[in-house]
Structures are given as C-alpha cells and as structure tokens.
Amino acid sequence: MRWSVKLVSGKQEAGSGIKRRRAPLTAYRSLLTCTLVLLVAACGKEPLYQQQSFVFGTQVEVSIYGETDAKARAAAAAVLQEFDRLHREFHAWKPGPLMALNTAIARGERHQVSPELAAAIRDATQLSEASGGLFNPAIGQLIALWGFQNDEFIPKRPDAEKITALVRAQPRMRDLTVDADNFVSSRNPAVQLDFGGYAKGLALDNALRILRAQGVKHALVNIGGNIIALGKHGSRPWHVGVRHPRAPGTLAELDLNDGEAIGTSGDYQRYFELDGRRYCHIIDPRTGYPASHTQSLTVLAAPGPRAGVLSDAASKPGFIADIGDWEAPLKRLGIEAAIRVDESGKIAMSEAMARRAKRVRD
C-alpha cells in the first residue's frame, strides 16, 4: 500500500510520494496512519469529508470542511474528475496530446495543441527562464533515458555518451514556438516535453477554482505532498507537516492560510539505488545526471491564481541549485519561504520560512 496523504486530527503531511525502495517501517506507518484516518472520520466531532484516489502516479486526497456530505461528495468528485482529465492531457509516455506533440517535435513537424496545453507551454517557458533553466520540462529524453518515464523500471545507469549528447543538444523551453492558432514547433529536435514538475501544480489551481465554483469555502487538496488550502479547518488554519526525507515523522510543521500552496521535491519519492548510490528522478539539466546534493526541498507559495503551479515548479530549481545558491532561483520565481535538507541531512531555512515553521526538527 503506497500512501502520500496523512491526515491525523486535521494535520496533513506534505512531501510523500511513490518510492521504488522504502524503509522497513514505511508499511507499518502507512497502516497505522490509515487506522487513525478511519478513527477520525468515525468520531463525528467535526464535519470533515474526505475522498481519495490515485492519480498522477500518486495518492491524492480532497478534504472538505463544513459542508453536507452530498455537497462535499459532489465537489470532491468534480475535482477528482478534473485530475483524471489532466493526467491524460499531460501524460508524457502514454498515448495522448503530449505524446502526439513530442512525436511531431522529433519529426521536425508543427503540431496544433489545445489552448490549455499551449498556455501551459508558454507559462512553463516563463518559469524556466526565470529559474535560469533549472526548471526545464524540455528534458523529457533525459528523464526517459534514466528510466523514469515508466510505471516500473529496472535500476541501471544510462550510457554516458548518450547523456553527454543530450546535454550538448541543450533542449530548452525557449526552443519552442507557439503561434496564435496554438501550433507548436521547435527549432531543436532534442526537445521532448515532460510536465511531471508542473501538472500537479496546475491541478491544484484548477481544484481551487472548481471548489469555489461549487460553493465550497473550506478545503485542503493534497496531490502526493503538493498541497493547496482553501479557507480554514474550522476555527483554525489548515495545519500541515513537511515529511522528513530520512527519519520517521515530520521535518517541520506550519499553518497554511487561504490560497497558499506548499510543494516538496525529494530524493525519496522516485529513485533507485545501484552500487550503494541513490539516483532520484530530479535531473539536473546542466549535467544530465540526477541531482545528488539535496534530500528534500519544500517551498511555500503565496496565494494567487498560480500558487499551485509555483509550489510544484519552484521546488525543482531549489533542489537542483548549487548548495550555496539554492535560494536565488526561488526568489526569482517569487518564492520567499523554503526549507532544504542537504545530502548530509543538514537543514537550512529561508528567513520567511523560519518565521512560519513550527516544531522544526533538529
């Protein structure tokens, strides 16, 4: 059983997700958490409705406070239906709109996409430029080469010459052109799009729009550790815990205000170990190899129409950036609050996160 959402007495844990290898106690903790969730739901002390599903390759959960079961059920179902749609729209290695576009790019052909996908390409290009290229959805070939574009994969290191060739080709978002009729072309055939670091954030933003349209005033949406808040959890803010990348329990806890989103990138989410070395799914586009000097990076995005997207996209450049410069790409993206754990387990926080975080672990 693979869990990414933990709710115990109103607290959710951010930063969980799929792991190719798990610690011996993970299954036990997941079972214990499941039991506690059931107990909370059964106690009947607060009007909290929860619905879960498995989308984007991870566990997702919609928690709605203060509504009737019928209204909450309908609103949660609408959100999960939207998640399913986005999953199909942005899937990088199964037949769908994104695969069709990638095929056309590889052939040097123009390809018309939906207005939604065209808007995502434009937005992701702006984010990529602001991050100094560390957020780069154009490196789909590198991600595939490392085996991370599969539901299951065999741990192995790719051919070094192939990695070098792709890095030299420099696939970048700015190599793409989107015209007024949403025809996309690329001057660089090495570009292959993978929106794995963007789509979950887009889904969070869409979820808030759907919930508000349904008349829901208080909710928390969690997609494998990417979380966005709507309203409050009763009389108090929604309270979330940032998962510790190595030890059981949380690294830090904080309250989420209305419209805020939190996102985590970690080397424990999707990775494999080979010859005593860990290779995670977060690829440094400068080297072509998985980033190895960070265990986890969590960002807090301020309320706004793109809070979810920012919480998803910004955690990648912060994770990849050099140790002494990890806050710089975040600030260029408008992120002030972040917490980072380096490869040795040392914790660093921005000043803004230090003011917000509670119960920070030593």
CATH fold topology of the largest domain = T-fold
Count every helix, treating DSSP H or I runs of 4 or more residues as helices.
11
- Biggest sheet strand order reads 3-4-8-9-12-15-16-17
Low-confidence stretches: 1-10, 16-44
What is the alpha-carbon Rg in Å? Answer: 20 Å
CATH uppermost class of the largest domain: Alpha Beta
Proportion of residues in helical segments: 25-40%
Shape assignment: globular
Q: Count of DSSP E strands?
A: 17
Q: How many separate domains?
A: 2
Succession of helices and strands: EEHEEHHEHHHEEHEEEEEEEEHHHEEH
Largest sheet: 8 strands, antiparallel
Q: Architecture of the largest domain, CATH level 2? A: Roll
Question: Strand pairing plus helix content: what structural class?
Answer: alpha+beta
Estimated share of beta-strand residues? 15-25%
The CATH superfamily of the largest domain appears as ApbE-like domains
Q: What is the terminal-to-terminal distance?
A: 30 Å
